[in-house]
Amino acid sequence: MSFETLLTPERIARETGAGFWRDKVITDFLDEYAEATPDKVAFVDSRRQITFAELRAEVDAVARGLLAKGIGSGDVVSFQIPNWIEWIVVHYAATRIGAVSNPLIPIYREREVGFMVELARSKVIVVPQEFRGFDYPTMIEGLRAEWDFGPEMVVLGTDSWDQLRAGGDDAADLAALRPDPNDVTLLIFTSGTTGEPKGVMHTHNTMVAANDPLPGRLGVGADSVLHMASTLAHLTGFLYGARLNVQNGATCVLQDVWDAGTFVELVERHKITYTSAATPFLHDLVTAPNLADHDTSSLVRFCCMGAPIPRTMVREAKTLLPGLVVVGGWGQTEEGLVTIGIPGDPEEKVIETDGYPWPGMEIRVVDPFGTVAPAGQEGALQVRGPFLFVGYAERLEMARELMLPADDDRGDWFDTGDLAHIDQDGYLRISGRTKDVIIRGGENIPVAYVENVLYEHPGIASIAVVAIPDPRLQERACACVVLAPGWTELTFEQMQAFLAEKGLAKQYWPEKLVLLEDFPKTPSGKIQKFQLRAEVAE
After folding, report:
1. Residue 533 pLDDT level (bands cut at 50, 70, 90)
2. pLDDT digits (tens, 9 = 90+) for 140-174
3. Which of 65, 73, 249, 391 is geometrically suited to a Cys-Cys bond with 98, CB 3.0 to 4.6 A?
4. What is the 3-state secondary structure (H, E, C) of 274-323?
5. pLDDT of 89-141, one tens digit each?
6. Burial of 141 (0-12, 13-18, 19+ CB in 10 A)
7. Beta-carbon neighbour count of residue 114 at 10 Å?
8. Is the pTM of the predicted complex or chain greater than 0.70?
9. Strand partners, 384
């Protein structure tokens, strides 16, 4: 399968000529460090660890196994694996032969997985037998009966996985299959704001470029020990958990289930120096009951993504972890990380901004007429640069509509859908959203998508999902419901049972239900969600 993209020869020439695109793929780095530091530990997970040389051997074996199954350049390999080394192996093996990686978040269920794999037309899907009590093979078998195509299922820990790991033709010249760095390597889904998730496409060049500035900005190098507890199937985990260490010859410790106490123990055991996670993870760290009982002095960087960092949390981190530098960052699946703080920033920059642009990334704010706004004025945030995606799979026109022509030769601007202002020093501050999305602990809840599912309930005449404030997660979702004629009751438990029946991922479920006689509306009949939010918050 070959995906149509927005990538043009002009963009390739511009980013390559400027030095941002280095024409490298992630397996180039794996090969480099497997030769230079073969016995160095590359990854550690909750079950085992693996050196760079061992990782390359496993990757090559699985790559040959994929070839034996008929997987080739441009074919999609889906995998719904926790933060285990097998996730890394499958992704790198797919890269080795030019296939497209389609990582799926482990908590996704029938509705999300069914839509995503069908749009991707995946040739194979790799899942665990069980994780956190859920039976993945049974879910996939049920979906396979509904699909009009037949992706092969490989289950970790079974004969199908052993067969894949056994490889295929040892004579296969894997080096000859190295993909073009401008080919699509990643198909990763982002929360849908128009009723369905969007398949974001990235190339090898966009993803390698997105990690290149991090060593210079945050001091990450071969001696660093990185940590990742966010799912590797989220772009934060993908970039800074699955790839950053390999691009720098460092070690990464993977945590498959977040628990602050376990993280504290991992920091002491492995001398972790850097982690990147949503802001609530920092809250959990500074309140971990065993923090004072362990040596966490090695931890010097904590990058908070997706939500503001409360002032009290920054100060508490300074007190409890005096060697730790906390920085905030902002980005989207479409463009990776766009801004991040600079170590040494004053406290006001840490808590009141979302950081300073990465090298090569440009940001601007425009007013409703498209005029660039002065410093400090709120407007629509637009972004451009070498990390920008190359389109939405099978929805290219949707991506094209968000690309705004520029009056120079440095590329089009992408409309992020966020409201922001940029201060006089060039630091970004996200102030709101033009899209209807709730951000719960740094993770997007696609409001329209959830509302569409709830509209299928026969007892619901009208539904509006709104954000309610939360001290740890910043926002939680509340379902405001007007019942259909003839219905007198809908309980929170009944709503949850309905969402489970529909196969909606549990992290999207509203955490509160409010029944109303009617909604506040504009004269044209549009629901006034700002009034709903105020009423529910009270």
Report:
1. confident
2. 999 999 999 989 999 999 999 999 999 877 767 89
3. 73
4. EEEEEHHHHHHHHCCCCHHHCCCCCCCEEEEECCCCCHHHHHHHHHHCCC
5. 999 999 999 999 999 999 999 999 999 999 999 999 999 999 999 999 999 99
6. exposed
7. 19
8. yes
9. 362
Q: Are 321 and 294 in contact (CB under 8 A)?
A: no
Please state, in angstroms and as integers, the Cα–Cα distance from residue 481 to each residue in 193, 439, 525, 526, following that order. Answer: 19, 21, 16, 15
Residues facing 120 on adjacent strands: none
Run of H or E including 164:
helix 159-165
Q: 270: which 2 tokens?
A: 């492995």
Provide the residue count of the chain.
538
Mapped onto helix, strand or coil, the DSSP state of residue 482 is strand
Dihedral sign of CA atoms 295, 301, 306, 312 in order: positive
Question: H helices within 3-121, ranges in order?
Answer: 9-17, 26-36, 52-68, 85-96, 110-120
Average pLDDT estimate for 434-456:
77
Rounded Cα distance between 232 and 87, Å, is: 8
Whether 437-537 and 25-35+49-180 are alike in CATH topology: the answer is no
CATH architecture label of 25-35+49-180: 3-Layer(aba) Sandwich (3.40)
What is the CA angle 255-257-261, rounded to 5?
A: 80
pLDDT at 524: 44
Q: Which CATH superfamily is domain 437-537 in?
A: ANL, C-terminal domain (3.30.300.30)
Q: How far lies 22's CA from each of 25, 117, 180, 192, in Å?
A: 9, 31, 12, 32
Cα-flanking dihedrals φ and ψ of residue 48, to 5°? Answer: -165, 180
For the chain, percent of residues with pLDDT exceeding 70:
96
For residues 23 and 181, is the Cβ–Cβ distance under 8 A?
yes
